[in-house]
C-alpha cells in the first residue's frame, strides 16, 4: 500500500504531535503509512504525488483572510506552497482532505470568499449533511446530523463555484465541501475527540480564540460533549483510497 501524506503547520510541538497521533488513531495507519511534513518548520520538500495514496491537511494558526501585511514570512511561504500543491491536486483530482485550514486554503484556491463572517467559538456543534452530503461516499455511515468540534476565526462565506456543499451548521453555512470527485475540505475537526480538544484549548489559550480566563469554564463545558461520528471520515478516506 502506498502511504498517505499529512501536511501540518502547528509550531507548538505538543499540539502538532497530538494532531499527528489523532490522525494515526482514526485512520488506523502506522507512522510508516502516514508520512508527516511540518510546513512551518521549513520549505515543502519536492514531492512526487504518485508516491502517495492521498493527502491530509491538518489545521493550524494561519488565517487565509488575514491582511497580507500582517502575515509572517512563514505564512506567506506556506500559502504559496499549498497553492502550488493544490494546482496539481485539483487538476489531477487526487484524494485530498483538508481539516479546518483546508476550507481556507482550498476555498481561496477555488475562488470562494473566505473571511471572518462565520467564525465559530471553540465548541461542539451539530453538523447537518446536505442531500449531496448524504449521497457522498466519504460520508457513508455518518448520521445526517452529528456533533463535531469547531473553533475558527474565519470560514467560507461564499462557496467556490467549483464546489459541492456537503455539510452545514447553524452558525456556519459551509462546514464541508467537495471539488471534483476526490478533493474535500471540512471546517470542523474530524480528528478531534474530547481529549484532543482539551489539549488544543490549553495550548492555544492565548491565541485569541477565547479569553484565557475562560479556560476552566470552557474545559468543563467541552468535557460534556459527545463527539463520536466525525472521525469516521478519516477511516473512510483511507479505506476508499488505500
Features:
single chain, 242 residues, alpha/beta, nine-stranded mixed sheet, 11 strands, 32% helix, 25% strand, globular
Overview of the molecule:
The mean pLDDT is 97. Helix 1 (13-27) packs antiparallel against helix 5 and helix 5 (194-203) runs antiparallel to helix 6 (215-223). The chain has a 9-stranded mixed β-sheet, with helices on both faces. Strands 5-8 form a two-stranded antiparallel sheet. By secondary structure, the protein is an alpha/beta fold. Helices cover 32% and strands 25% of the residues. Helix 2 (73-92) links the parallel strand 3 and strand 4. It is built from 7 helices and 11 strands.
Secondary-structure map with pairings?
Blueprint: E1 4-8, H1 13-27, E2 34-38, E3 55-57, H2 73-92, E4 96-99, H3 101-109, E5 113-115, E6 120-129, H4 131-135, E7 145-152, E8 155-158, E9 163-169, E10 172-179, E11 183-186, H5 194-203, H6 215-223, H7 232-241
Parallel strand pairs: 1-2, 1-3, 3-4, 4-11
Antiparallel strand pairs: 5-8, 6-7, 6-9, 9-10, 10-11
Helix pairs in contact: 1-5, 5-6
Amino acid at each position: 500500500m502506498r502511504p498517505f501524506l499529512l501536511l501540518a503547520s502547528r509550531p507548538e510541538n505538543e499540539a502538532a504531535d497530538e494532531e499527528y497521533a489523532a490522525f494515526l488513531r482514526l485512520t488506523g495507519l502506522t507512522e510508516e503509512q502516514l508520512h508527516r511534513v511540518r510546513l512551518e518548520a521549513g520549505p515543502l520538500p519536492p514531492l512526487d504525488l504518485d508516491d502517495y495514496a492521498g493527502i491530509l491537511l491538518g489545521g493550524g494558526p494561519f488565517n487565509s483572510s488575514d491582511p497580507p501585511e500582517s502575515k509572517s514570512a512563514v505564512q506567506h511561504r506556506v500559502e504559496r506552497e499549498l497553492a502550488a500543491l493544490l494546482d496539481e491536486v485539483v487538476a489531477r483530482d487526487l484524494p485530498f482532505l483538508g481539516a479546518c485550514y483546508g476550507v481556507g486554503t482550498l476555498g481561496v484556491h477555488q475562488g470562494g470568499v473566505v473571511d471572518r463572517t462565520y467564525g465559530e467559538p471553540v465548541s461542539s456543534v451539530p453538523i447537518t449533511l446536505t442531500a449531496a452530503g448524504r449521497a457522498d461516499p466519504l460520508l457513508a455511515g455518518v448520521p445526517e446530523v452529528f456533533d463535531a468540534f469547531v473553533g475558527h476565526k474565519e470560514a467560507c462565506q461564499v462557496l467556490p463555484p467549483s464546489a459541492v456543499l456537503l455539510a452545514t451548521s447553524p452558525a456556519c453555512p459551509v462546514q464541508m465541501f467537495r471539488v471534483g470527485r476526490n478533493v474535500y475540505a471540512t471546517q470542523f475537526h474530524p480528528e478531534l475527540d474530547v481529549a484532543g480538544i482539551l489539549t488544543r484549548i490549553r495550548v492555544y489559550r492565548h491565541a485569541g480564540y477565547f479569553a484565557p480566563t475562560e479556560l476552566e469554564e470552557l474545559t468543563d463545558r467541552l468535557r460534556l460533549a459527545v463527539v463520536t461520528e466525525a472521525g469516521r471520515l478519516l477511516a473512510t478516506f483511507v479505506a476508499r483510497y488505500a
